[in-house]
Amino acid sequence: MTKPVAREPQRRNSRSNRARILATARRELGRNPDVTLEELARASGVVRRTLFGHFPGRAALLEALAEEASETLRGVLETARRPEEPAERALAHFMRCIWPVGDRYRLLLALARRDLGMERVAEILAPAREEVTSILERGGREGVFHAQLPPAVLSAGLEAMHFALLEQVNTGALEDDGTRVTVVTLIAAGVPAERAGVVVEEVTPDVPTVEPDVLD
């Protein structure tokens, strides 16, 4: 009786190719949103047929990136939440954890309106929006954040600022590991500048280290 041919090496190779294509797409689309699938195949080191076997079109590739971003964000949120901390520290820790995710997937912002649609982007960001709004509500009660705006409105304003900053990263005008952005976020939320810098310094040692090869 003939033994079935082991397919696990093929599966591993297929998973490796898919991951390499997605990583290449994150990098190349960030540089040039109009890069073609054929160019991505060459940059990934795979033949055109292999890329199209995983992603039959541009829409499928972008949706795969969107789903990957959503899964990554949900995973980081488990680490980023600090409900037991004072609100200013909780917001600082959250931002320091989340910024690398935004930096990794900032290309989606450039492609959102044209390819993904803002509804899909909003769906990806919903858990982060809920967490920030919750922190701002708590900070309002603690008297450390602005009371002039409802927490959800302030959260939306901070998010818009973060989008603008990520676009500056896209253009090369800004490079930051999240430290300066987090200080600015606390200041925008109502924390005095000197105190904001101290808080970010305090929480930084507790922020998980992200290996460079995870984001590149």
Please, could you describe this protein's structure?
There is one protein chain. By secondary structure, the protein is mainly alpha-helical. It is 75% helix and 0% strand. It has eleven helices and no strands. The chain has helices at 8-31, 37-44, 48-54, 58-80, 87-104, 107-116, 118-142, 151-171, 179-189, 193-203, 212-215. The protein is elongated. The chain starts with 7 loop residues before the first helix and ends with a helix.
What is the strand and helix layout of this fold?
Blueprint: H1 8-31, H2 37-44, H3 48-54, H4 58-80, H5 87-104, H6 107-116, H7 118-142, H8 151-171, H9 179-189, H10 193-203, H11 212-215
Helix pairs in contact: 1-2, 2-3, 4-5, 4-7, 5-7, 5-9, 5-10, 6-7, 7-8, 8-9, 9-10
Number of helices, counting only DSSP H or I runs of 4 residues or more: 11
Number of strands: 0
Terminal CA distance reads 47 Å
Biggest sheet, in brief? none
Morphology call:
elongated
Mean pLDDT: 87
How much strand?
Answer: under 5%
